[in-house]
Amino acid sequence: HAQRLQGLGTTIFAEMSALAVRTNSVNLGQGFPDTDGPDSLLEAAIAAIRAGANQYPPGRGIPALRQAIVDHQQRFYGLSYEPDTEVLVTTGATEAIAASLLAYVEPGDEVIALEPYYDSYAACIAMAGGHRVPVTLRAPDFRLDLDELRAAVSSKSKVLLINSPHNPTGTVLDDTELRGIASIAVEHDLVVITDEVYEHLVFDGLQHHPLTAYDGMAERTVSIGSAGKTFSVTGWKIGWVTGSPSVVTAVNTAKQFLTYVSGAPFQPAVAGALALGNEYFDSLRTTMQAKRDLLCDGLASLGFGVHRPQGTYFVTTDVRPLGYTDGVDFCRMLPEKTGVVAIPHQVFYDNVEAGRPLVRWAFCKQTHVLEEALSRLTKL
Ligand code: PMP
Ligand code: GLN
């Protein structure tokens, strides 16, 4: 295979989900809900198939979905977009990330990414011929150190790749951090790709702030969202990009030759879901916060060091209080010993030491499943 695939191996999520099936384990590894999204959403996709929405839709997405994305950005953040030129529907956020990096990264360019990073970032930066420059979010608080970010910028920097709410740490970047990112991006004329797929999973009364709303950002920001997390349909792979007309044109230039278009019958369904009342979004958040607390409290009482997340559906723990030192060894041992699967942080770092003792658990599961996992973990 080509050099660009060097070291990419198999994604940790596929590896650990296969291990979960093989060992009949409770899978708190890969982040996907074990219940479906709202009925109205599911029925709308079925109806769309029956109504014949089964051929190539428009490349940028069906007009109803582009309008619904615009309305959603206006309703939650007061942001205005033009549906014909400033919105692009993609095959999940994953394609949006890949197409954005292909659109902006020249071979040899540096891409600064928050570490631990979502695994597709590293792979797509490499496939685009770029070099990854990590800025580490460190335990216990996993805050962004703006001095470290500033120090990571060089004459080769092209793109800042930001993710908030952040997988896997659960950090929700605050106003000071976002303002700092914006000022560095403007000063060094960087493109900012911001992955905000967990925008509706923010807890304890905190707010998600879109990076594009900061001064000087609108023209340089590629904002990425997804239906997968917000509507519990991770298998549908409907995501989107919003940005200036030139941003959307650039990303679409790559997107059109990756997948051409994205899932026709899912698009009208997601358009309807984005217009659901506030009670849907509120209940998603409060239900998930209760699951967070159940799993965090349970893991703490088992002796883990628990880093309670501000957002996402993942909690990070430190395994050292239980006498283990290495998260990869811990996660390889765990299914056989207890019948539970989790994900080691280490695979999401260049600076492996910062993630060595950290393990991520997904809490987007039914209460009885989380309880079963906690009960199995008493075998540790
Ligand atoms: N970004 C982050 C941070 C994620 O956690 C995920 C989901 N695993 C994605 C992107 C991919 O989203 P999608 O399923 O819409 O491709
Ligand atoms: N985003 C989910 C996670 O972080 C699933 C990722 C995947 O399977 N590619 O677990």
TrEMBL record:
Q: Which InterPro entries match?
A: Aminotransferase_I/II_large, Kynurenine-oxoglutarate_AT, PyrdxlP-dep_Trfase, PyrdxlP-dep_Trfase_major, PyrdxlP-dep_Trfase_small
The Aminotransferase class I/classII large domain covers which part of the protein?
A: 25-374
Could you tell me which Gene3D superfamilies the record lists for this protein? Aspartate Aminotransferase, domain 1, Type I PLP-dependent aspartate aminotransferase-like (Major domain)
**UniProt GO MF annotations:** kynurenine-oxoglutarate transaminase activity; pyridoxal phosphate binding
Transmembrane region(s): none
The record's keywords, sorted A to Z, are: Aminotransferase, Pyridoxal phosphate, Transferase
Cofactor annotation: pyridoxal 5'-phosphate
Top-rank lineage group of the source organism = Bacteria
Q: Which GO terms describe its cellular component?
A: cytoplasm
Q: Which SUPFAM superfamilies match?
A: PLP-dependent transferases (SSF53383)
Pfam families with a match to the protein in the record: Aminotran_1_2
Instruction: Tell me the protein's name.
Output: N-succinyldiaminopimelate aminotransferase
